[in-house]
Amino acid sequence: MTKLTRIGIPLMLLIGLGAFVYAWFSAASPNVTREGIQSYAVGEMSRLQFQRAGEPISEAEFQAPDGSTATLADYTGRILVVNFWGTTCAPCVLEMPTLAALQNEFDESDLLVMPLSFDRVGDYPMARERLDELTDGALDFYGDAERGVMFDSYIGGFPSTVIYDRNGREVARFEGDTDWASDEALELFRALVG
């Protein structure tokens, strides 16, 4: 038996086994693939962007609703919809009721809409009150006055929304305002939640 045969055949079998295992686990995975998620970029969701898909969440700290310090990693295990907004941003204010409607469609253990405000710390009481008015109390207030999460997430304008999978990897992002409770948006999030 030649050296090529002794090494080549077992190596080919090992590669084949690895491909089979990968295919089996991929088929059993409930997550929507990157290619599959792009099929949901229609109608209200037609401006979804996928260039940064797969990137990990920011490790920067921000203020949680209870006033403590948190990171996005504290909220993984569910689909995260991180919306970068501020009270001085008219399109941000315009879309906020639709983000509340999106949250009302899902249990927070499956999907969490996180409005992350870039307002100054001194303006947090007013921003929290405004958010409560816009969402009928459906969304909690999160503050990123230092803008660490915003910079780590490469946010270029407002509003911007980044969608993360349960493992804290970016799925897609949306720049500008939209109707987050539209049929297209709900179909997208139902697929992500599984």
Comma- or semicolon-separated keywords:
194 residues; alpha/beta; 5-stranded mixed sheet; two-stranded antiparallel ribbon; 6 helices; 39% helix
Strand content: 15-25%
Quaternary assembly: single chain
Class computed from helices, strands and strand pairing? alpha/beta
Q: Provide a count of the helices.
A: 6
CA-based gyration radius? 20 Å
Low-pLDDT runs of 5+ residues are 17-31
Describe the protein's architecture and organization.
The longest helix has 26 residues, at 3-28. The chain has 194 residues and is α/β, with parallel strands linked by helices. Helices cover 39% and strands 16% of the residues. Mean pLDDT is 89; it is low at 17-31. It has six helices and seven strands; from the N terminus they run ααβββαβαβαββα.
Describe the protein's topology.
Elements: H1 3-28, H2 34-38, E1 62-63, E2 69-70, E3 79-85, H3 90-105, E4 111-117, H4 124-135, E5 142-143, H5 148-152, E6 160-164, E7 170-175, H6 183-193
Parallel strand pairs: 3-4, 4-5
Antiparallel strand pairs: 1-2, 3-6, 6-7
